[in-house]
Design goal:
Uridine Diphospho-n-acetylenolpyruvylglucosamine Reductase, domain 2; 28% strand; four-stranded mixed beta sheet; Uridine Diphospho-n-acetylenolpyruvylglucosamine Reductase, domain 1; 21% helix; alpha+beta; Uridine Diphospho-n-acetylenolpyruvylglucosamine Reductase, domain 3; five-stranded antiparallel beta sheet; 3 domains; 19 strands; 261 residues
Length: 261
């Protein structure tokens, strides 16, 4: 079964055409040459994307079982945040400020500062079986998981803190409101991608409808009518200028899906 997705409306970048996306319901039917997408909050879709799949509604659930919080990988972060607040569950206050579905947050070990999704993780269930936390390589915005994530189990702790929610909201207050995919580049060790982009004169720099935000230089934003070509030009220009001036290779935090880059 497939569904047609218009990525100019669906993705957080508001860029992309309409493509058929296969629904993954059973792992036996999982096409190995396909790329699994969630809600496309950190993805730039090109004009020639690979075969795309997404989890079916079967994997959108939250339950408490055996003193664990068990969540389906298709569950939106906002739904999980609301569930934790309603049920006085601690350590997920930051989730409401990380848009996306749980599978994507796990795949990239999403977080804010020291608060990362892996902090309270017990296991991840994938198409090949259950992987305990100590069997997974993970670090700053990285895991080595290379197959569909179906569900995740977390330690269950009580004591929801509204103060933390307010703190995370304040941390996000400097971010632009225009369509983007969050931070464009990972922060190099000991430095900030936004500072480097500003230092090479690209803060507020626009090509077509895309711009490195004048509010936060590491946010590539769609000011209206931005295209894949506009976005990739700016990405390559930032990498080129930063390397020429500082000898630092900026590593993408967003994911580009296109057969021709």
């Amino acid at each position: 079964m497939t569904k047609s997705i218009d990525f100019s409306k669906y993705s957080s970048f508001k860029i992309g055409g309409s493509f058929e996306v296969e629904l993954l319901d059973e792992c036996q039917t999982y096409p190995k040459d396909a790329y699994l997408i969630g809600s496309c909050n950190n993805i730039l879709i090109g004009n020639n994307p690979p075969k795309l799949i997404t989890l079916s509604k079967r994997y959108d659930f939250i339950k408490i079982e055996d003193d664990m919080l068990i969540v389906g990988a298709a569950t939106p972060s906002g739904r999980l945040a609301s569930f934790c607040k309603k049920n006085n569950i601690a350590d997920f206050e930051f989730i409401s400020h990380l848009p996306g579905k749980l599978g994507g947050l796990i795949k990239m070990n999403a977080g804010l500062k020291e608060y990362e999704i892996f902090n309270n993780l017990i296991y991840v269930k994938t198409c090949s079986g259950v992987k305990n936390k100590d069997e997974i390589e993970f670090g700053y915005r990285y895991t080595n998981i290379d197959e569909p994530i179906l569900e995740v189990a977390f330690e269950l702790k009580y004591g929801f803190l509204q103060d933390r929610v307010d703190m995370f909201a304040k941390m996000r207050s400097n971010q632009p409101k225009e369509p983007s995919a969050g931070s464009c580049f990972k922060n190099p060790k000991g430095d900030y991608a936004g500072r480097l982009i500003e230092e090479v004169g690209l803060k507020g720099f626009r090509v077509g409808g895309m711009e490195f935000s004048s509010k936060h230089a590491n946010f590539l934003v769609n000011m209206g009518g931005g295209t894949y070509e506009d976005a990739t030009f700016l990405i390559k220009e930032a990498q080129k200028r930063v390397f020429e001036k500082f000898g630092i290779t900026l590593e993408l935090e967003i994911i580009i899906l296109d057969k021709i880059i």
